[in-house]
Amino acid sequence: MHLMRIFFIGLFISFLGALPLGTLNVAAMQISVSEGIKNAIYFSLGALLVEIIYVRISLVAMDWVRTHKIIFRWLEWISILIVVVLALASFISAAKPYNEKNIHFISALPKFLLGIAMSAANPVQIPFWFGWSTVLFSKKILLPNNEHYNFYIAGIGIGTFIANALFIFGGRFVVHKLDANHQIFNWAVGGVFAVTAIIMLLRIMMKKDASAKL
After folding, report:
1. Which of 120, 126, 166, 156 is nearest to 9 (CA)?
2. Per-residue pLDDT tens for 77-103?
3. Range of the domain at 11
4. Domain for residue 36, yes or no?
5. Over the chain, what is the mean pLDDT?
6. For 103-132, what is each residue's pLDDT tens digit?
């Protein structure tokens, strides 16, 4: 019974954490609209694999995570670069006639590998799960053993996949059901990526300014 509780706690946290608009779920939605559900699912599975690995790292190597912040600073800059390229790709697609093939970031890369690459360059997942896992450890809900870890990670994986499925199927349904203009959709997606890149850059600069004052 306790293991199922851990499973559903991981599922619930993961599901809610994946619902706000972000780089990965918007990219999955865009891929589902322009390249089909199958490619979008492959993309989501690749991103999910990396998230599970990050969660495992945060569980078994918390001290290492604390002392290697420089790695995640580099990942933050890489993540910004990827988001900017995605925004530009969406804007270019929006500016072209509908009958021309949509342009995607590293379009030749298999979508599973693209999901891995984008998720690996998204270090926000580590402090997110580091924080939640710390809370669960402190409340004795999660204990440091493999059985607890496995049920926790399984819940996280399913929760994230369900949330991504909402974007994959929901976004595709809205675009096709309402016969929405694909160019408008690409402008909107590009705008989300552009705003995301700006927010990420501001966060990095604010961290830098705060460190300089100390």
Report:
1. 156
2. 766 776 677 677 767 766 765 444 444
3. 2-74+103-182
4. yes
5. 76
6. 444 456 788 998 998 888 776 677 777 777
From residue 202, give the alpha-carbon distance in Å to each of 26, 32, 121. 20, 30, 17
* Total number of domains in the chain: 1
Give the span between the Cα atoms of 106 and 117, in whole angstroms. Answer: 10
Using CA atoms, how far residue 170 sits from 32, 36, 176, 193, 195, in Å, is 10, 13, 10, 19, 22
Between the CA atoms of 41, 24, 184 and 176, what dihedral angle is there, to the nearest 10 degrees?
20
User: What pTM was computed for the model?
Assistant: 0.67
Report the half-sphere exposure of 146 (CA within 13 A, side-chain side): 0
DSSP readout, 60-127? H-HHHHHH-HHHHHHHHHHHHHHHHHHHHHHHHHHHS-TTSPPP-TTTTS-HHHHHHHHHHT-TTHHH
